[in-house]
Amino acid sequence: MRNKKFLYLVALGFLSFGAITGCKKSSSAPDEPVTPPVVTTPTGKRDELTKDSIFLYGKELYYWNTSLPTYEVFNPRGFSSNEAELYAMTQYSLDPATGKPYEYVSNSGEPKYSFFDYTAVTTGKTGALKADVNGSANDYGFSVQYNNTTDLRVKYVYPNSPAALQGLTRGCRITSVNGRTDLTYPGAINFLNSAIFGTNATVTLAFNDISGNQKTAVVSSSLYTVNPILFTNVYTVGTKKVGYIVFNSFTNNASAAINTVFSNFATQGVSELIIDLRYNGGGYVSTATQIINLVAPAGETGNTMFTSYYNNYLQSITSAQRKASVLAHQPLLDDAGKLQTFTTGVNGKYATYADLNYSPTAADNIEKFAKSGSLSLNRVYFIVTGSTASASELTINSLKPVMDVKLIGRTTYGKPVGFFPIRIDKVDMYIPEFETKNKVGVGGYYSGLTVDKESAEDLTKAWGDETETLLAYALLYAKNGNFVTTAAKTASLSTTTTVMPSKLSVAELRALDEKLDPKGFKGMVMTPDKKF
Question: 226: how many CB neighbours lie within 10 A of its CB?
Fold first, then answer.
């Protein structure tokens, strides 16, 4: 009974409203009258009540909620921080394929999927819903990765960012950061993380550009608009026109630009398309569905694209449970961020997440294809790595049943789950709340999507360079219909052996992505369009 008491007192006495986004749902039938619960005045400090709320929301919303213990056993107030509690909460449910928690990350104290996004008024805390998803950023605008243990390269630069204005491009070799020239892996990792991704106002770089010219730059952190389209081109491959787009994040500000690019592809007669998602960790599902509908065959219009599945409790939630649910205190806002009047709903005043239908058969949980544009494709290639996650994987998985799809690179991150944020006092909590499955019921790729051609990328090449390994494989397949390459001639061995720097393993590169691209968002956020 104590657990139930806390459910009511925390939900009714403490939870705060905020600007909430969420997944599309439909209204449930009018609720039957129920006896209101006895409300106990909440006791405890503010941070203790926050910890209570974190757990109680998890008990209702977490996709693997049945694995969580009782309030008494878990003891949320016993954790030293919100982050420690969240990590503990995400380590109960085991993936039968691996025997480890679904949210387990090797050598990490953070969950694979869940996180907090702190509001601007939260002193000393950093938001986790990264700016590259919301369309603006206040940083340097570039990221780095090791080509080998001694070769640090710029892996991408956002157009018109501070780094771009100082001449940095993909492929530049960094030789010095703030005067330090020893940038060898792994000894320099923490230094680089602080210097490039910390809170410093500037970073001083020495680098060799893509042509080998030595340059220096002082890059200042400043506000800029994120353009997730890093490069586009159309290649002539025999008699084919092959389009290429490097898309770095499913931001909420790219719709017009995406339409323009795909319209240009159609005008030039593109029949095969390469979508480069190698660093794309996801973002807004609305942007993903836009791209899916631009790529998909017109004949799929009206057919199921994907379905969202919630936990069994939410799928079968009763009228009485809706009344008692903490979701009754999460308002469902309209497109303008305003409350929606809904006097016949659970709240009795405005629409909330307790008014939504979480059944997988509900129309609002089934996304349908709706072909847009005139691009007609015979095949689509996706360039992917371990950084390719969530909304990117959703895009790939949704298209696989309806057209010829080829994956090139490395196995993807593995995130078939998504979320809508839950506001708790001054923090938005993101925990997996639903899983998506495509039109033939395929999902569950927690270990990632495997590729048709496995290969490492070449960080020494600029975007669009036809000799860059992953792009070259896509163009090769477009030409020959396979990934078979002609064996290169081997030079005669000399009496002197040159020791080459070691390449990093796949596991090392995955771990580095978390350190050297900490502002990269991995997730898929669904925005509501339910009108009451």
Answer: 22
SS3 label, residue 515 = helix
Residues 208-252: tens digit of each pLDDT: 999 999 999 999 999 999 999 999 999 999 999 999 999 999 999
How far apart are alpha carbons 180 and 189 in whole angstroms? 12
**What would the DSSP string read from start to end of 276-288?**
E-TT--EEEHHHH
Q: Minimal CA–CA distance to 522: which of 424, 411, 396, 432? A: 432
Kindly tell me the burial class for residue 421, based on how many C-beta atoms sit within 10 Å of its own C-beta (0-12, 13-18, 19 or more): buried
334-363 pLDDT tens trace = 888 899 999 999 989 999 999 999 999 999
Give percent of the chain with pLDDT exceeding 90.
Answer: 75
Closest-CA residue to 529 (of 289, 314, 294, 305) = 289
Report the alpha-carbon distance of residue 361 to residue 379 in Å, rounded. 31
- Residue 523: pLDDT band (50, 70, 90) is confident
Residue 7: per-residue pLDDT: 34
Q: Is 514 exposed, middle or buried (0-12, 13-18, 19+ CB in 10 A)?
A: middle
Closest CA to 111 of 99, 119, 102, 103: 103
| Burial class, 295, CB count within 10 angstroms (exposed 0-12 / middle 13-18 / buried 19+) | buried
Q: What angle, 0 to 180 degrees and rounded to 10, lies between the N-to-C axes of helices 82-89 and 46-61? A: 20
* Nearest to 60, CA basis, from 436, 349, 282, 356: 356
Total-model pTM = 0.89
Q: What is the pLDDT of residues 312-327, one digit of tens each?
A: 999 999 999 999 999 9
Structure tokens of 92?
């109960």
Beta bridge partners of 471: none
| Structural contact between residues 281 and 395, judged by C-beta atoms closer than 8 angstroms | no
Reduced to 3 states (helix: H, G, I; strand: E, B; else coil), residue 346 is: coil
Which H or E run contains 57?
helix 46-61
DSSP classification of residue 512: H
